[in-house]
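Thread: Newbie trying to understand structure tokens

Hi all, I'm a second-year student working on a class project, and my supervisor (Dr. K.) asked me to get a predicted structure for one chain before our next meeting. I've only ever worked with sequences, so writing a 3D structure as a token string is new to me. If someone could post the tokens and maybe explain what I'm looking at, I'd be very grateful. Here's the chain:
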Amino acid sequence: MTLQIGHIALDNSLFVAPMAGVTDRPFRMLCRELGAGYAVSEMVTSRKELWGTLKTSRRANHEGEPGPISVQIAGTDAAMMSEAAEYNIDRGAQIIDINMGCPAKKVCNKWAGSALMRDEPLALEIVEAVVRAALPHRVPVTLKMRTGWSEDHRNAVTLARRFEAAGVQMLTVHGRTREQGYKGRAEYDTISAVKAAVRIPVVANGDIASPEKARDVLAATGADAVMVGRAAQGRPWIFREIAHFLATGTHLAPPLVAEVRRLMLDHLQQHYALYGDYTGVRTARKHIGWYVRALPGGEAFRSEMNLIEDCEAQLRAVAAFFDALAQRMDRIPPASADDMLEPLDAQSADAIA
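---
Reply by user tm_fold:
Sure, no problem. This is what the structure looks like when written as tokens:
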């Protein structure tokens, strides 16, 4: 199952969600290697004074990343968002995604992210400005939003029509309001209504944590693609599992422990290369925690890992953990969907869009 964003063809219709502090370049590339057809970057601020910071420069780093390169931008001022689009296009962005889905307070308090859905004229002004900036470069503009601000203010369908008319070429809808955050269960009726209201591709997002759920959400919404967020944390092979199930109706065998060991050690080395030793060893802890959380001895190992402050020692500890695990089992035991959607920890809950 494939689709196009404007003139750009994607490998398949399985997407990695933009997650602040998670979907950096090494993680995006790993998900692509394991079956995702498309990955959107962590959001880049439209505040020009922050572009020179180390945090933003890392987020704008696409060295060696396979295309199409999609960068999500966030902000509240149309002119600044236009300039942010130009800035990222100059640095390799082939698709610009507008963030109107982030529920984090530090984003919404500044009227960015999903807060923009409360100000429809401003939301439309931003979209029009970004489309104008991207058009001369033949860069498609996409947008990610929620179903609305609150239960009483669901306006995704109205906005979807306006965004399409303004030139947006794909819409992703997370099946929750901003008020919900990540609580409760995602609903898909609104996504279905958005799909019926527009002609551009629509992507369904929210609680997709298994091949069966991906199949059911596609059937229920008529969406053109699904976007996976939390369920890919520590389980990036979920994309090939979904792809296999959608193609054959059968389940792919879980990955071998030896394969996960290799993937994880390579991921860590790429992570250190991007962040450096000091930051790398600390920010890698959450990824390691996600990989091992459903494994025998995983919680104890996670506690041990939080005390290690050296990259080489961290690599050795991870290798030893999986070597010991390989003595007990050949394959990684399947994780439940509930495990994959457990509450986010403090390190990653800041802005998963």
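A couple of things are worth pointing out once you decode it. Residues 41 and 71 are 5 Å apart (CA to CA). The radius of gyration is 20 Å. Feel free to ask follow-ups in this thread.
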